[in-house]
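Entry 14. Ran structure prediction on the chain below.
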Amino acid sequence: MPATPAAMFWSGGKDSAMALDRVRRTGEHRVEALITTINPDFGRVSMHGVRETLVEAQAQAADLPLERMYVGSSADGGAYVSALRDVLAGQRRRGVEAVIFGDIFLADLRAWREGLLAECGLRGVFPLWGEDTAKLSRDFVAGGFKAVTCCVDDAHLGADAVGRELDARFFDDLPRSVDPCGENGEYHSFVYDGPVFGRPVAFTAGERVYRPLGSTPADAGAGDDGAHPAIPVPAPLADSATKGFWFVDLLPAD
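Output, structure tokens:
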């Protein structure tokens, strides 16, 4: 039976990488593109502030085209959904039948995704769904993946956690209140090597930056050539104790 053509929503983090690896190993779906939401005001991934150039380098290392879904800082939920519909419609016209996500247990988010996909004539695929996140974290290390944290929520982790390698020691050090895979947004990661890549993604770790909620680009300095790099702040989950986020500015290696 031929593999189903699919696109994949790609954050650049460990759950995306594990889901892509799982899909490729089963052979049931043929991933034809990675889709990443980019904030054009910063040139960074909307979710965690990794530079667009590094996500492009990941896609090249995975030998897949990258489709950027641009959603600006001033966009509301309606603008995001409109951009998403356009991207999904474009993938459907190219023959894609399924869209892959790295979600693990956020049921409301999955239901929302599936409803929107159905409207576009697509179906969702969730390779990691319902799996034990402690086991997934061990599998990530054992599978030869390499990643660093790029953003942490200060309600759960401190400055010393950002920029750390996602190795066995990192997962052992996580507080009990933190999901091992950061599924509740406690931390985000950037994968730079592993079985989904033909070569490592070269980068260097730049400045650590703290961004309080409600801060503006002006609060962050003049931008990448100023005192603090301009990095978008992700939205915390409802009822969160979050006051802000720690970031490490990952830089493409020369």
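The chain has two domains: 4-125, 133-252. Will compare against last week's run tomorrow.
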